[in-house]
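Tokens in:
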């Protein structure tokens, strides 16, 4: 029998799961020669959230990262995770963008493309798979594993057959939530092996503590490739440990042939590297069995926790966790994976915080119910659909069939900023974020977020911080935007503060000459939300009547739809806000005249602000 092959996840999903995708290229390259010697089936090093994190937080060109990893790993297959028609963004892209993105990814170093769709709608995977094959690369079709009344073995076998017909080389079972149990894995793998000839590749998160057992039983049932992560970034919301699985299979007919001493040497390097990223560590139990009931992936739980914490609503977490399965059922049981996990999770938060189910409905839920993400796996709740989209027509075709080619338009829009086709694709993924990144790169001002020094860890762990963490300072007519990122210990009566001044990281030494007692107030408790404690924000009006338009959750303004003097009716959209990577149209509760617009596009906002003021009729 063929030995089992291993895909190593330390360069992508491992750090995405445990330190919010913050591992920098500079900390990858030194160990790449050793990783390249191991003999992994592949090294997953790109895709997923890495593209977003590179541009948004790390200020690294994601294409340059890929090229440098390709040079540093000459003997290894580089693998990426691709969201089908969504690519690495959160919307469907036209076919010309999809084909160009796949070709450039292949040109820059990707060998294996794991292609999935959050809805398991194979129509949304077809063009990506065709593009991979046209580039002469390895296409891995993917089943997004989940449990529901409609997701059974027959469902997954039928999907696998379609993927094989499309020309996929291998088949991945993507258990993004860690729901696979050992014997469910046996049944699924055996059924797939009896139906398709593609080698089977198992990917499972260790959140519920079952992944290693599921992989072992899957191997015994005939799976040939497993995903693991070196122990420096394994287990918990991450994956089974590479060294442990290699040791477990050693000497058996499934022996991986990998060197345990070499793996441990590499792990020692990453163990030290991880200490630099302590501020991004996910605070969660190593094993969270709640997922077996809620089916909420670990990364989704951490995002929800952060959002609720920003609103002083962490006590609502249990209510949100109970609401998520209800929203998922209303939407026809989509798998909870990007972007459907954000769609379901954000709507659940809104249902809890607005005091009524579907009192506010995100644009993404509306588009989902209109078929613009693909076909729902099961029947949707017709009452919810009626409430959200009324009598609007639901599309039945492949969503991308309704999109016109846009690569030429994007290239024209970004003219003067872009230097290559890869830059155009960066702009295509995230137009606003991409534009800012390309402008900063051209100006030579790209500055990654600050990595706080280890000696500031104790101070950051203090349970109460009652001073503003973000504010504007005006000095001699010039205004500076200050954002406190952390603080260190007092030394010689001086304390270092790590701040961003107009986006540039600085260290400020503060010497105390006198101290006053600070009494916490409602406005200063929300230190985690942008602008929530700033002088500018506190000067804005607070809600006083039904015409004051507010938001249920912190986010940023994407679009302002009205101006002072406009007449609006109850239910009209006045703003679009982005929260948890989802857009939500905020509607007026009354009919009347707009008398004040207190925000602009790009502003960070919190629930205690009046965004638009309407004088009721």
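Residues out:
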């Amino acid at each position: 029998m063929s030995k089992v092959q291993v895909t190593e996840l330390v360069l992508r999903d491992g750090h995405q799961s445990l330190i919010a995708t913050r591992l920098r290229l500079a900390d990858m390259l030194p160990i790449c020669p050793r990783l390249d010697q191991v003999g992994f089936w592949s090294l997953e090093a790109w895709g997923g959230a890495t593209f977003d994190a590179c541009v948004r937080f790390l200020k690294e060109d994601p294409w340059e990262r890929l090229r440098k990893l390709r040079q540093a790993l000459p003997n290894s297959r580089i693998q990426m995770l691709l969201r089908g028609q969504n690519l690495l963004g959160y919307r469907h892209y036209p076919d010309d963008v999809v084909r160009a993105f796949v070709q450039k990814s292949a040109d820059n170093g990707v060998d294996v493309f794991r292609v999935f769709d959050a809805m398991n709608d194979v129509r949304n995977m077809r063009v990506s798979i065709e593009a991979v094959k046209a580039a002469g690369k390895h296409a891995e079709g993917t089943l997004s594993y989940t449990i529901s009344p409609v997701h059974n073995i027959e469902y997954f076998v039928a999907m696998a057959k379609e993927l094989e017909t499309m020309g996929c080389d291998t088949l991945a079972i993507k258990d993004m939530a860690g729901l696979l149990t050992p014997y469910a894995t046996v049944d699924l793998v055996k059924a797939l092996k009896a139906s398709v000839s593609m080698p089977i590749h198992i990917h499972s998160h260790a959140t519920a503590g079952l992944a290693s057992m599921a992989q072992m039983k899957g191997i015994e049932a005939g799976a040939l490739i497993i995903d693991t992560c070196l122990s420096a970034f394994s287990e918990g919301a991450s994956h089974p440990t590479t060294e442990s699985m290699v040791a477990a299979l050693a000497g058996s007919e499934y022996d991986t042939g990998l060197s345990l001493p070499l793996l441990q040497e590499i792990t020692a390097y990453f163990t030290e590297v991880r200490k630099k990223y302590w501020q991004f560590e996910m605070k969660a139990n190593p094993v969270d069995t709640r997922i077996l009931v809620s089916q909420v992936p670990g990364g989704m739980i951490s995002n929800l926790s952060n959002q609720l914490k920003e609103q002083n609503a962490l006590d609502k977490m249990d209510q949100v966790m109970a609401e998520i399965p209800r929203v998922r059922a209303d939407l026809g049981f989509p798998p909870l994976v990007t972007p459907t996990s954000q769609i379901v999770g954000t709507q659940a938060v809104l249902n809890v915080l607005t005091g009524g189910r579907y009192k506010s409905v995100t644009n993404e839920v509306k588009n989902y119910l209109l078929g613009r993400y693909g076909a729902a796996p099961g029947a949707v709740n017709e009452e919810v659909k009626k409430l959200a989209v009324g009598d609007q027509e639901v599309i039945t075709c492949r969503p991308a069939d309704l999109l016109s080619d846009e690569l030429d338009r994007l290239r024209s829009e970004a003219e003067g900023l872009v230097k290559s086709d890869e830059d155009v694709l960066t702009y295509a993924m995230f137009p606003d974020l991409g534009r800012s990144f390309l402008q900063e790169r051209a100006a030579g001002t790209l500055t990654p977020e600050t990595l706080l020094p280890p000696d500031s860890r104790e101070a950051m762990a203090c349970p109460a911080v009652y001073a503003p963490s973000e504010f504007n300072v005006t000095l001699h007519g010039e205004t500076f935007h200050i954002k406190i990122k952390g603080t260190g210990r007092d030394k010689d009566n001086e304390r270092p503060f790590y701040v961003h001044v107009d986006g540039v990281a600085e260290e400020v030494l503060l010497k105390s000459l006198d101290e006053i007692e600070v009494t916490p107030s409602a406005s200063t408790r929300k230190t985690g939300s942008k602008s929530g404690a700033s002088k500018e924000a506190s000067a804005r009006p607070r809600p006083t009547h039904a015409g004051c338009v507010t938001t249920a959750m912190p986010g940023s303004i994407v679009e302002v739809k009205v101006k002072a003097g406009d007449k609006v009716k109850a239910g009209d959209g006045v703003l679009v806000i982005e929260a948890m990577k989802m857009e939500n149209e905020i509607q007026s509760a009354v009919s009347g005249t707009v008398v004040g617009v207190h925000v602009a596009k790009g502003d960070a906002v919190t629930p205690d602000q009046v965004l638009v003021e309407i004088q009721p009729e």
